Records
---
Amino acid sequence: MRATDAAYAVLKAQGQPMDVQDLLDETLLRLGTDREPRIAARIYTDINLDSRFQYRGGSSWGLKEWQPKSPGRNIASRERGGYEDDDNEDLEEDDG
């Protein structure tokens, strides 16, 4: 098992963001590896580079999938070639 997959499984099981040190400890435990600074640093780097993880501030990390999905533009609006905010539909200049 890759270290990032183990870290993902740890966070998924936890169900909420974790302090990076706790995340590293639990990940190393899952991998059956002793905590060595070089190994912990490599796992931390890999977590930083893996798009499944999201830094939550302080020293907390979570999963990107926990972030609420942002609402996209309205499909009907896209089909018209407009935007969701139709308040500005009459932006044509008046020649009169």
---
Amino acid sequence: MFLFGMPGGWEVVLIFLAILILFGAKKLPELARGLGQSMKEFRKAQTEIEEEINKTVEDKPAPKKGPSSDDE
């Protein structure tokens, strides 16, 4: 069942046929190329965000231990 998990073999075939009927055979390579570029850009952005987070965590100074002025 599609709503409760990944689509199975027949669901994928039906989805592909629906896309083929809607867009035609000539548009499919163009759509696939656009999807691939979008995924590439998404992964690039994800990697940049992860690197920025890791850089921030590494640059953050360790908290000082000892008595604080709030205890007085």
---
Amino acid sequence: MSQAIQAADRLLGTVIDGRYRVESLLGHGGMGLVYRATHTHLRKTFAIKVLRERSSRDPNAMARFQREAESASAIGNAHIVDISDFGTLPDGSTYFVMEHLQGVDLVAATDDGVPMPVERACHIAIQLCGALGAAHEIGIVHRDLKPENVFLINRDGHLDFVKVLDFGIAKVAHGPSPLTLETEILGTPHYMSPEQSAGLAIDHRTDIYALGVLLYEMLSTRVPFDAETAVAILHKHVHERPTPIDLYVPNISSGLKRIIGRCLEKKPERRYQSMDELRADLERVQQSEAGRPAPLNTSWRAWAFFPRSRPLVWAGLLTASLLAFFGAIALGAFASDGADAASSDRTAEDPALVSVEHDPPAPLAQPVESHVVSREAPDVSPPASLARSVESPPAHSSPREARNPIRKRRRQPVARPKPQQKTASSDEVLDPWY
């Protein structure tokens, strides 16, 4: 039995501080465990995060844990998880109480491997801009923004309502003494900015970079940089360019591509300088995408699971397709028989048609040559077009073409000019990374 489960068993069924009854374990991480608890007087469900016993003996871990509670409470934004209480257990472990969230994190929301629709991705990113912008206004940098720390709930009929979690390694300006050295690297490698990866000083623009990585991942199901080791990933953040997202999402709009490219700039001064600036561009893209027709879903997963998810609809479409196919065959055969019968009736009623079909017209009589030709005599030869029209049909032509030689000429292919290739304009160059 793991230490996490053993620690959970010790608290299950107990009442913390005489008012929080611990009912179940919701999850556990490197520093703490999260429980589901009910307030014994209010009959309200909460989530309680308890710092592990070994971490409680580490002063830095204790300070970070307390800072997480203080930072989240100080921001006071609806998209930041609400923390309502803080205390210490009899064994010395520290805990804080936060709102109980029912929903999924961004990992589960994108776990099917299908790219997220643009409107939904923009909707989530816009809310993240609001939450992190509020934190930046009071000098708090999250610096660990990743899918696990973005929770989606249904609040008052509002789907995908965002809650930002875990300010445990948040950097607080104007706060108490720093908990880490400036050269210490903290964060999750796939979502760390270049300056964070290199252990340099960071500011609020490192969260803008991480949000660009989240946008890239939501739309393409891939992260911009990946490797076998954390060190290799950090090296790519600092020195390599991200793979252009339109290689994975060909139908992405130029506006959204520019937004992601600007968020992922290596130098902070070339990124968006505030979450409000980023949010304004995302809202413009969201409005433009709302007026565009939805692109066809080319993902093989969507087509593979369509029959199982809607069996009646699929069976109906298949039956209608088969009926239409066989109906078209029957209708074509009926029309062909009718045409043959009509042709036979016309031939029987008008015997002259038989002779016309089989006997080519006699050539016109040759004009009598004149032995005396005057220089002033007008040219009485027929026009070239008329001469061609009265010539005898070639031996291989059909009787129908003999009766109407103009039809044969109309069947000749017409030479069409080659289309001119459109040269790329300067507007198509969207971002220096691409």
